């Protein structure tokens, strides 16, 4: 059974920091692309950052220079370090694992999400 379990969300003041973690089980973690997505109320889910198995990363323009994604394959865990948080970063943050197969197919799993609230 595959599980992605996010943790580390909470309430933080603008300018503060949080570190999200996503622990995976039931998959060969090291070969999956891991990503963080977020969904604010009334908005579609959007990519925040992702990291491929080889370690290359990709970020949304809105978080470049503030957020850092990393992975520890020995611990089957992906992290999202979020600094200089803004109120517009408020959202439910979801962890995603993806393994691309041939012919455009992929194996995708999602976590249940963790809420990040940036507010005074």
The number of helical elements comes to 0
Which range best describes the helical content: under 10%, 10-25%, 25-40%, 40-55%, 55-70% or over 70%? under 10%
Look at the helices and sheets and give the structural class.
Answer: mainly beta
DSSP strand (E) fraction? Answer: over 45%
Distance between the termini: 40 Å
Low-confidence residue ranges: none
Overall, the morphology is globular
According to DSSP, the number of beta strands is: 11
By oligomeric state, this entry counts as single chain
Biggest sheet, in brief? 7 strands, mixed
Order of helices and strands: EEEEEEEEEEE
Radius of gyration: 14 Å
Compact summary:
The chain is mainly beta. The protein has strands at about 5, 10, 20-25, 35-40, 45-50, 55-60, 65-70, 75-80, 90-100, 105-110, 115-120.
Structure in words:
It contains no helices and eleven strands. Strands 2, 4, 5, 6, 9, 10 and 11 form a seven-stranded mixed sheet that branches. The mean pLDDT is 96. It is mainly β and 120 residues long. The relative contact order is 0.31. Strand 5 (46-51) and strand 6 (57-59) form a beta hairpin.
Topology diagram in text:
Elements: E1 3-7, E2 10-12, E3 18-25, E4 33-39, E5 46-51, E6 57-59, E7 67-72, E8 77-82, E9 91-100, E10 106-110, E11 114-118
Parallel strand pairs: 2-11
Antiparallel strand pairs: 1-3, 3-8, 4-5, 4-9, 5-6, 7-8, 9-10, 9-11
Features:
mainly beta; four-stranded antiparallel beta sheet; seven-stranded mixed beta sheet; 120 residues; globular; single chain
């Amino acid at each position: 059974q595959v599980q992605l379990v996010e943790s580390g969300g909470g309430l933080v003041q603008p300018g503060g920091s949080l570190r999200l973690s996503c622990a995976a089980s039931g998959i060969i973690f090291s070969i999956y692309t891991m990503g963080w997505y977020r969904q604010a109320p009334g908005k579609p889910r959007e990519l925040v950052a992702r990291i491929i198995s080889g370690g290359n990363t990709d970020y949304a323009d809105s978080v470049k220079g503030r957020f850092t994604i990393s992975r520890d394959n020995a611990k089957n865990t992906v992290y999202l370090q979020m600094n200089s948080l803004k109120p517009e970063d408020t959202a439910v943050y979801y962890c995603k694992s993806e393994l691309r197969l041939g012919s455009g197919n992929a194996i995708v799993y999602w976590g249940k999400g963790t809420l990040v609230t940036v507010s005074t």
